[in-house]
Design goal:
Elements: H1 14-28, H2 31-34, H3 81-106, H4 111-127, H5 136-140, H6 153-156, E1 175-182, H7 194-206, H8 223-232, E2 234-238, H9 253-256, H10 267-289, E3 295-299, E4 304-308, E5 319-323, H11 327-335, H12 343-358, H13 362-375, H14 386-391, H15 402-409, H16 411-415, E6 424-427, H17 430-440, E7 457-460, E8 468-471, E9 473-483, E10 486-499, H18 501-514, E11 518-525, H19 545-549, H20 558-565, E12 577-581, E13 584-588
Antiparallel strand pairs: 1-10, 1-11, 2-7, 2-8, 3-4, 3-7, 4-5, 5-6, 9-10, 11-12, 12-13
Helix pairs in contact: 7-8, 8-18, 18-20
């Protein structure tokens, strides 16, 4: 290429040219900026599209002109009217300064006050920070920028402290797994001594509670903490099959398949199991009525029933929630004379009626009329076909028979089956009728499959006839988590089993001082029981204080009783995450 004459030995790539210019600017140092005759103005770029700025440096000729910025416009240069007005204002301030100095010389007695006023003015200027908007061209020419982009004092100031929440709402759903994580170690929760384990079991059976100290410098050496942790893991269950996991029961056919079930083909053994189960259920209801048991669960292969004593969740009497239900089960309950309600459907109707009163437009009336045609059970059989008579084709169109009309009316109830909206609420004396219905209901026990002949599982926080004491499984693990700066040690405590509401509250009360008010909880809910948080119909009326005080002998801590006695606010949702920061709770559903 040199022989052809089209090759230039001094040719450089554009990147090499930019690198050379950057190196030259660094080698010249800060003297180049100070030697410029142009006075810098805050918020103004040091280059312009024309030959306005001429920077003279020792290494350059006097006639050198800075290159033109192709991205500059009239608004970010000295030629901008705003910048000229700003520079004019600064010039006036500079012109006023000598006059002030002259006045100070003429009036020495007033110099102190003037100097103080000038100092106050300078202090105010230091706090007034100019905010320069960052544009795309600023990002492209960041190296050439002389004025830094600063944030306003309002943006730098921290936000107002959040409200301290010392308690979280009661969650009536059953948990299959709870995972605690914290920067502090959970080593105190493992390898309990035999004496600590025995004391925890004895305290649970006798309903004796010892509060842990507010400040625990060494959790491993705190006997009260370790015994209380063992006490929190206890629960009562019936029936008890050591080789079978009897919770959860809904959708657990695979867990039972291949297991030894000698009662599946033995009718006598099935009757014996059901007889003992009926005695245990009756004992639990008696304890519930006497307020010696706060609540208990009945877990069958199709649905779950939550019985709660008077005063729990803001109720004045005994309540029971069934979920999920089917139309056949609801019809059977009606046939037995059990009065019940569908809380979620009633809440939907109330919100629908409220919407009608607020929105009185024609479109809302028409849409509501179409919905009421489907929901109204007392609708006339021929009302849906009146438009055929108006068109004069009623004889040419074959009308559906009575069975089809009945199925159409029952379509709404059938659609509720196995859905959260099918939850049933039974209150007052009807709960005793429900108890007898469950004992005599043949469909309560599976007639075929891996759970055939096995009675439902009864779970309770206190002892009852035929119950077996079980312990939740706990395991502490330390893992390393990848963060921005590297790996960070994260301590975790996993608790598995049928975790009831009082157990979750008692564990958090223990971890509060042990983990120094900082931990997170991941909650794994048994989904069919999430809807058990639905509020009852008497939620608007406050619960009498005497009703809550009568629960002092129910076998739970007083703090847990107060939490469970408050009306439910979670609706058909359940807690998924629970966080404690600086001894304050926050949660997600």
């Amino acid at each position: 290429m040199a022989e052809l004459g089209c090759y230039s030995p001094s040719f450089k790539k554009p990147c090499d040219v930019l690198r050379m210019r950057r190196n030259r600017a660094r080698s010249e140092g800060p003297d180049m900026r100070t030697s410029s005759p142009v006075v810098s103005v805050p918020g103004v770029r040091p280059f312009s599209p024309g030959p306005l700025l001429t920077l003279h440096a020792p290494g350059r000729s006097r006639g050198a002109v800075k290159r033109r910025n192709p991205f500059a416009n009239i608004e970010n240069t000295y030629n901008s009217p705003k910048k000229r007005a700003l520079s004019h204002t600064d010039g006036e301030k500079a012109a006023v300064a000598p006059v002030l100095d002259g006045k100070l010389k003429e009036r020495p007695n007033a110099g102190a006050s003037l100097r103080e006023e000038l100092l106050n003015t300078d202090r105010r200027k230091q706090h007034e920070i100019t905010i320069v908007p960052v544009s795309e061209e600023d990002c492209l020419f960041e190296e050439e920028r002389s004025t830094p982009v600063l944030k306003s004092p309002e943006a730098v100031c921290p936000a107002a402290p959040a409200e301290v929440c010392v308690e979280f709402p009661a969650d009536w759903s059953l948990k299959t797994r709870v995972l605690f994580t914290s920067p502090q170690s959970f080593s105190w929760a493992e390898h309990l001594k035999a004496q600590e384990e025995a004391q925890g079991l004895s305290s649970h059976c006798r309903a004796q509670f010892t509060s842990a100290p507010a400040n625990i410098p060494d959790p491993r050496g705190c006997v009260e903490l370790r015994c209380g942790f063992q006490q929190c893991l206890q629960f009562w269950q019936h029936p008890s099959m050591p080789w079978l996991s009897l919770f959860p029961r809904i959708g657990a056919e695979r867990k039972f398949s291949g297991k030894c079930v000698p009662w599946a083909q033995d009718t006598t053994l099935q009757q014996s199991l059901m007889s003992d189960w009926s005695v245990s259920l009756t004992s639990l209801y008696s304890l519930l009525k006497a307020r010696l048991c706060p609540y208990f669960y009945l877990c069958s292969y199709q649905f779950t029933v939550l019985f709660r004593a008077a005063g729990m969740s803001g109720s004045k009497g005994i309540t029971a929630l069934l979920s999920p239900t089917t139309r056949g089960l609801r019809e059977a309950m009606k046939a037995e004379g059990i009065e019940f309600s569908l809380p979620l459907l009633e809440e939907r109707r109330k919100s629908k009626d409220l919407g009608e009163s607020v929105h009185q437009t024609e479109s809302a009336v028409l849409s509501e009329h179409s919905e009421n045609e489907e929901d109204d059970d007392d609708e006339d059989d021929d009302g849906g076909f009146s438009w055929l008579k108006e068109m004069g084709v009623q004889d040419k169109i074959k009308k559906p028979d009575a069975i089809s009309i009945k199925l159409r009316k029952e379509h709404r109830e059938v659609c509720l089956d196995h859905r959260p909206e099918s939850v049933v609420l039974v209150e007052g004396s009807n709960t005793f009728t429900l108890l007898n219905f469950l004992i005599n209901c043949k469909s309560l026990v599976a007639g075929a499959g891996s759970q055939a002949g096995l009675p439902p599982t009864l779970l309770a926080p206190t002892a009852f006839r035929g119950a077996t004491l079980h312990t939740l499984k706990a395991r502490a693990v330390n893992v390393k988590t990848l963060v921005r700066t590297g790996y960070q040690d994260v301590c975790s405590l996993e608790v598995t089993g049928p975790i009831m509401p009082h157990t979750l509250h008692a564990l958090t009360q223990l971890l509060r001082p042990a983990q120094r008010g900082e931990f997170s909880v991941g909650l794994y809910t048994h989904e069919p029981t999430a809807v058990l948080n639905v509020p009852i119909s008497q939620r608007s009326e406050p619960t009498p204080e005497c009703v809550v005080q009568d629960l002092g002998r129910c076998g739970l801590q007083q703090s847990s009783v107060q939490q469970l006695a408050a009306p439910s606010i979670l609706g058909k949702c359940a807690l998924r995450q629970l966080h404690m920061r600086d001894y304050s709770y926050s949660w997600k559903t």
